[in-house]
Amino acid sequence: MGRMRFRVEKLIRDRLPAIMRAQGLSVFDRQLSGEELAKALRNKLLEEAQEAVTASDTDLIEELADVAEVLRALAASIGKTPEDIEAVRQTKHAARGGFELGTYNAAVEAQPGLSA
User: Fold this and answer.
1) pLDDT score for 69
2) φ and ψ of 33, to 5 deg
3) Handedness of CA 5, 42, 52, 66 (dihedral sign)
4) Cα(16)–Cα(10) distance, rounded to whole angstroms?
5) Whether residue 3 has pLDDT greater than 90
6) Rounded distance, CA 105 to CA 112, Å?
7) Distance (Å, rounded) from C-alpha 65 to C-alpha 30?
8) What span, in angstroms and rounded, lies between the C-alpha atoms of 70 and 72?
């Protein structure tokens, strides 16, 4: 019986190809860079965020760690650091607040002709 091939077509963690090869799998991987890497990282961010949305409370920290890892790589792909992200986060928090209070906006009503 021949080997089965599964199409993956997504960004994976750097050490996974070696781990899979050590398990006897054939891995068809390549290194991305530039715009191709940036696009793959943005897609990976969506994937990891969705996994965090559906994670159980016990698995959530693992998924948040994956989101943080992708954020670090995505920031690096545009020449930024986690510290740069934190500085912008602090500025936005000071100006608009955070999410600690759980404020949920159900609707907004305005007089006709009022522009925001």
Assistant:
1) 97
2) -150, 170
3) positive
4) 12
5) no
6) 20
7) 24
8) 5
Question: H-type helices in 8-106, by residue range?
Answer: 16-22, 34-54, 60-77, 82-96
**Do the beta carbons of residue 61 and residue 21 sit within 8 Å?**
no
What residues have CB less than 8 Å from 84, skipping those under 6 apart?
75
Q: pLDDT tens-digit profile of 73-98? A: 999 999 999 999 999 999 999 999 99
How far apart are the C-alpha atoms of 29 and 69, rounded to whole Å? 20
Amino acid letter for position 61: I
- The amino acid at 6: F
Contact 14, 50 (CB under 8 A): no
DSSP state, 10? S
Q: Give the residue carrying structure tokens 């609707």.
A: 107
